[in-house]
Amino acid sequence: MTSPAREFSVLERICRPGQLEDSRVLIGPGDDLALVRAEGRGDVGGAEILVGVDQLIDGIHVDIATVGWSAAGRKAVTRSLSDIAAMAGRPVSIVVSAAVPPDVTEASAMELFDSMKETASQYHAPLVGGDLAILKEGPLTCSVTVMAVPPPQGAVTRFGAQPGDGLYVTGQLGGAWRGTHHLTFEPRLSEASMLRAILQDRLHAMLDISDGLGRDAAHLVERSGLQVVIEADALPCRDGADVSQAVGDGEDYELLLAAAGEVPEGLGACPVTRIGTIQERPDPDAPPVVLEWNGANHDISQSGWEHQ
Ligand SMILES: [Mg+2]
């Protein structure tokens, strides 16, 4: 019997650690972006480049009939830029490819590409190449590849959390998909750079919340024996969202970080809230992420939205 492909089990195959055989690959699959050294033959050193790709599909990440082509183009770019923020990188450029349904007008395709180009340039990530294919059938699929450079202090990975670290989140969580936040959010590029500059090596791990707080927090400890403990009362819920939505809705594109010592409570207009702690897992079968809520511990390691 054949079973349907699931995003995480397929990605796991690509992302299995310990498979890096090329010394130019500094951070391999499994993080928000990879880090490679662009080293020519005989070069010593070479520039470090962050690179990654993400897709936006009509019916999964947006509903084009409701939001329109321009909003879809913006989101295709901003959700990829959010992965640059997760590594504390600075955008360099993007390339895009789109496959559109056969009945799409030229004007709609133009609107899509104009929006991607405009959004990219707004974040100083010029769109430097693209491709358009016309599908025989199927929904709009937009693929955005981002290139970026790490900050002077080095890129921040997902996997460096330490026992005793505080867990922090930027902005607010929950309800992003129900409202317009998932279309209008600003990738936290400058906040991530500020955090890296302020915290230096005390910023141990970071990612952007796309799948949902529970599931994304689990990524922070998937290569360690650590556990994330989140306090429900501390969660900064977006207006109209409750704790379970803050934990499971996803599409927030906020930064989730583990850091030691003092962390600023805000960066400009962006709040930074301590929502929990990283600790040793009490036993090997304990859940990777627990939510302390109303006096009970809840396993929220799977709370989130698998884009499928
Ligand atoms: Mg990400």
Q: How would you explain this protein's 3D organization?
A:
- The protein has about 300 residues and is an alpha+beta fold.
- The protein has two domains: about 30-150, 60s Ribosomal Protein L30, Chain: A; about 165-300, Phosphoribosyl-aminoimidazole Synthetase, Chain A, domain 2.
- About 25% of the residues lie in helices and about 30% in strands.
- The chain is built from seven helices and 14 strands.
- The strands form two sheets. Strands 7, 8, 9, 10, 11, 12, 13 and 14 form an eight-stranded mixed β-sheet that branches. The chain has a six-stranded mixed β-sheet with strand order 1-2-3-6-4-5, with helices on one face.
- Bound molecules: magnesium ion.
- Magnesium ion binds near residues 32, 86, 207, 208 and 210.
SSE inventory with pairings:
Layout: H1 7-15, E1 25-27, E2 34-38, E3 47-57, H2 64-86, E4 90-100, H3 106-122, E5 127-134, E6 141-149, E7 166-170, H4 181-184, H5 189-199, E8 203-208, H6 213-220, E9 226-231, H7 243-248, E10 255-259, E11 266-267, E12 270-280, E13 289-293, E14 296-299
Parallel strand pairs: 4-5, 9-13
Antiparallel strand pairs: 1-2, 2-3, 3-6, 4-6, 7-10, 7-12, 8-10, 9-12, 11-12, 13-14
Helix pairs in contact: 2-3, 2-5
Bound molecules: magnesium ion.
Q: What would the keywords be for this entry?
A:
alpha+beta; 6-stranded mixed sheet; Phosphoribosyl-aminoimidazole Synthetase, Chain A, domain 2; 30% strand; 14 strands; 60s Ribosomal Protein L30, Chain: A; binds magnesium ion; 8-stranded mixed sheet
